[in-house]
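Dear support,

I submitted the protein below through the web form. The confirmation email said the job was done, but the results page showed an empty box. After a refresh the structure appeared. I'm attaching both so you can tell me whether what I see now is the final result or a partial one.
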Amino acid sequence: MMLPDLSLANAGAPTCALESFRRRIPVSARLAGVGLLVAFLSTLGCFVRAPGLNVSMAEGGTLISVDYEIFGKVQGVFFRKYTQTEGKKLGLVGWVQNTDEGTVQGQVQGPISKVRHMQEWLETKGSPKSHIDRASFSNEKVILKLDYSDFQIVK
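What the results page shows now:
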């Protein structure tokens, strides 16, 4: 489904219910009211791409958080680095670390479709030299906001 681009930063007219409502007003005035506008448009079923807002978060729907643990040959094969790179590529946040038991564990947060993609990557791909025996996912929950600002390797 293609969502209308209601970016407040562009000069084009929106393609939602506010077609006749938009007027040329100073950028500072538009930015000051972005919170109210987002709330209003949400009630109309429209999505807004506000300046500085990550597009995947604005259009990705429900945010979730999932803990994971990966079993197999996953230490000493750059698994954490590849996990961080894949998470960042998908626009996700969270962390990854080695455990004393020889596994890799972490947490990933973001839009549900992107998290599902990451879960599949963790379960089936990993780093080129890794061998994944199994992946365990737990504590999945819907979240209202992200707890992290990026994807970190914890040492």
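Response: this is the final, complete result; the empty box was a page-load delay. The first strand starts at residue 63 and ends at 73.
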